[in-house]
Each structure stands twice: as C-alpha cells, then as structure tokens.
Amino acid sequence: xxxxxxxxxxxxxxxxxxxxxxxxxxxxxxxxxxxxxxxxxxxxxxxxxxxxxxxxxxxxxxxxxxxxxxxxxxxxxxxxxxxxxxxxxxxxxxxxxxxxxxxxxxxxxxxxxxxxxxxxxxxxxxxxxxxxxxxxxxxxxxxxxxxxxxxxxxxxxxxxxxxxxxxxxxxxxxxxxxxxxxxxxxxxxxxxxxxxxxxxxxxxxxxxxxxxxxxxxxxxxxxxxxxxxxxxxxxxxxxxxxxxxxxxxxxxxxxxxxxxxxxx
Amino acid sequence: xxxxxxxxxxxxxxxxxxxxxxxxxxxxxxxxxxxxxxxxxxxxxxxxxxxxxxxxxxxxxxxxxxxxxxxxxxxxxxxxxxxxxxxxxxxxxxxxxxxxxxxxxxxxxxxxxxxxxxxxxxxxxxxxxxxxxxxxxxxxxxxxxxxxxxxxxxxxxxxxxxxxxxxxxxxxxxxxxxxxxxxxxxxxxxxxxxxxxxxxxxxxxxxxxxxxxxxxxxxxxxxxxxxxxxxxxxxxxxxxxxxxxxxxxxxxxxxxxxxxxxxxxxxxxxxxxxxxxxxxxxxxxxxxxxxxxxxxxxxxxxxxxxxxxxxx
Lengths: 264, 312
Prior knowledge:
The complex is a heterodimer of chains A (264) and B (312).
Chain A: E1 2-11, E2 19-29, E3 34-38, H1 45-53, E4 60-65, E5 68-69, H2 75-78, E6 82-85, H3 99-107, H4 121-132, H5 151-163, E7 169-173, H6 181-198, E8 202-205, H7 209-214, E9 218-223, E10 226-232, H8 233-238, H9 241-263
Parallel strand pairs in A: 3-8, 3-9, 6-7, 7-8
Antiparallel strand pairs in A: 1-2, 1-4, 4-5, 9-10
Helix pairs in contact in A: 3-5, 5-6
Chain B: H1 2-27, H2 34-51, H3 55-78, H4 84-102, E1 108-110, H5 117-125, H6 129-151, H7 155-165, H8 167-172, H9 177-203, E2 205-207, H10 214-228, H11 234-257, H12 266-311
Antiparallel strand pairs in B: 1-2
Helix pairs in contact in B: 1-6, 1-9, 1-10, 1-11, 2-3, 2-4, 2-9, 3-4, 3-9, 5-6, 6-11, 7-9, 10-11, 10-12
C-alpha cells in the first residue's frame, strides 16, 4: 500500500521562475491497484514519481510505502522496494553490459553477500527461462550487449529488471511513448501480463488516453499539481474517451470561471 | 638481450599501473589524475619501509597507501561533489607533500645498501639476476590479474562496471553509487601504488618526481593493449593492459636505443602516441564522411549528366 499525504513541492522557490509542482496532493493506493495517470505537461505527474522515488525532498507531507515512512530514506534504499521504468529506453539499462549481466544486477538487489559471484549457473538458467516467456528472441542473445538491442527490446529488459524481484511499487513513466505503435502495444501487453500475474501495485503515466482507459482499475487526472479526477472500478470501466475529455474541459472551465470571478 | 629482459620486466611491473588506469579510465569512465600522486605514494612508502629493513611490509603498505589515496579522491568526488578531474588533481598535489614527508624531506632515497624484494629473490630462486627479477614481476602481475578478474565477476564488481556505464540505472537498482565509485578508485590506486612500490625496489631508489606523466604512460599502455584484443570484456581488458604495457616498454626501448630521440624526449613521444591513439575514432569518422561525400558527388554528377542528355 502506498500513501501520499499532503505532498507539497515548489521548485525554484523565491525566484521569478517559481513553480508549484505539487499542491497538497494526497493519494492512497491499495495493494494490487493498477492506476493510470493522465494530465497535461507540467501537471506534476513526473514530480509525483520523483517524490515517491526520492529524487528530491518534499517541502511538506509524507510518503508511506508498505507501512514504512520512507520520506527520509535515500534514493537507492527506496529503490529496493520500487521499480521504475522511464520513457527513455537508454535510461534503464547499462548499454555496454550484456543482457545477462543487466538482469543479474537487478536480480541481486536483495542479495546480502557483495563478494558472491554475480552470475551463477542457476541464475543464468532462470533468466533464460524468464526471457523466453516474452517471445522476443532475447533468450538466445543473453551475451549480447544491451546497447545493440532495439528500443522496444530494451524497455522489455528494463521492465523485467524492475519486476524480477517483485517490487512493492512499480512506476511506469510513459514507458511506451518512445516506441512505434506496434512495439508499444506489445510492451504494454507484457506490462499488463506481469502486473496481473504478480499483482503489483502500479502507477503508470501515459499521454495515450485510450490506453489509460483500457489499462488498470483506476484513473487519476492531474492538473497543476492537484488530482482533479479520480475514478475507479466500474465507474472507470464506463468512462469513454469523450467522457474523459468532457470531464477535463469541465474542470478546466470551472477553473477559468473562477479566475474570471477573481479578475472581476 | 638486455633490452628484451629489461623491457619485459618493466613492462610487467608497469602493467600493474596500466590495470589501475584501465579500471578508472575504461570501467569507471573517469580519467583519474590521482595516479600521478598515488604512484609516488607507493614508491615512497615502499622505499621508506625497505630502508627500515622491511621490503615485503613496504609492498603491503604501498597498496594500502594507494587505496587510501584513491578513497580520498572518491570522497572528494562523491561526498563533496567536486569535479572528478579536479578531485584527482587535489589529491595528487596534496600527496606531493605527504610523499616528501615519508621520504624524510629529501627528494631522493637510495636503496642500494638495503635488501629489496628483488635482492631477496636472488637467494630464493638462485637463478640469474635478470631471470629472478622477471619471475618476481610475473608473480606480482599474475596475482593481481587473478584477484581483479575474480573481483569483477562478483556482485560488487558488476555494480562498479554498471556505475561507469549508466549511473541512473545503478541508482534505480538500489546500489549506492558513492560506495561503488570510492571502492573502484581505491582498488585502482592500490594497484597503481603497488606498481610504484615494486618499481622503487626494482630500480633501487625512489624519486619524488617519478610520478610525473605516469598517467600518460598508463593510458598509452591501455590504448596500445586494446589494439591486440578484439574482445571487450573486463578480463580481456585487464590482460590487454598488461600486453600493452609490455609493448609500450619495447617501443620506448627501441626508440631510445636507436639514438634517434634523446632520452628526455620520452614524455613527448608518449604524449603524442596517446594523443594520436585517442584521436583514431575521430580520424576514422572524418575519413568515412569524406568517402561518403565523394561517392555522393560522383552519383550526383552522374544523375545530372544523365538528365542533361535526356533534355537534349
């Protein structure tokens, strides 16, 4: 379970470029929730992920993951519980190391002995079997440098690295946005499969409203650092593309009306 | 014959330096200038212990001294967020004073009258002096290569390699990159200081200026070594660094014996070799672009002439 309580973050405080990225944002995710997050650029989606992962300190508020207060935990310690896939396929893997070595690095995140061999035969067999499930031909290329793989293949490898040891929370930051439509769909299906199988608590940022609607059991819409729409379960299933657009413009208009009132 | 033996001995000993440079330059992807200081650090510590009658302890403490120097640079880089090159320069210039202090504030320390590791080996192996020196050098290199090859196959070794490859990803894999960087720098400089420690006992003296330009020597060895191996694994890289170091010593010995260059030209020649070797990718790219341009021009002229013929 993930709880974000009254999270506040302002970047460049006290300068003309001051930007309030999170305004008192509160959110509770139940175990196994698969939440999609939509919102325009600068809405605070990635800031929200950054706050959970510990890229920066929040100005105020708390983050509780798996009943542990992680607000003061350094980034690399949180990473033990959180898997994160970025939009940029280059970011999640080490290009000059082989697929096997990349997987081994991720797999050993919970291992205690730092001087133990990184890749044992047993692990190697397990990686191969795991890779073969996704029929991308990666299992025969375990010794290939990851830098030689296509963007889609690299995203799949990253996804596997994040989920091989089940994380308490999986964060997907537009992880299919840099891929061609066919590959994006394939990676999306693999994502759904893994999340469903391991019942991972997941948050996924996407600009693709269609996949936001068809994926997961909950949908959040963010705007200027606030959650302006939160639908789950049946309510979300009923939501259509038109419906969501209408809701968005309604919320936006109300805001504009408020501004107008202020100005008048 | 003396040339072959001398080059082989020096090449193997300086191979330890080359491996240290390889770890920072190729694995960690940081050119680490601490090398110039830590080499002399090892040299001075080893010499001081030898004068006191403990040549073997001298070697052990030389390694520790180098590792400490590397850890300091690592802390400056990670804890204090100082630019990697500047951090190395700071440690290096600080070490100058430390080294002078160890050598009893004289810039030169002679070990002629003392038992060195190599002199001890004459009695132990009972062979020709040159052969004994070669055996000692070879044993040192083999030991260090074995330890490093195994180390880079362990979990922490893998983490160090990944740190040089993609920091973001390592952070996301719950590894503290500060720890991996400090550790890698300590290991690298430990190896470099071991090289310095052996060199001082090999040549029978320690000089405060021995470390000047040593980074370039190490880089030259690493780059020359890469010409000999096609595989780009860490094991291949470490071994090729040794091969490169031996090759470099042969090149230097030949250049010097040909009396074409004066002895003091050594550093300039090394710097030119490294400069050219590092520029090879750029030169290749330039050549390829030129070839492409030529080919395109030719096909363009062909199309134009064909068109003109058609117009007529």
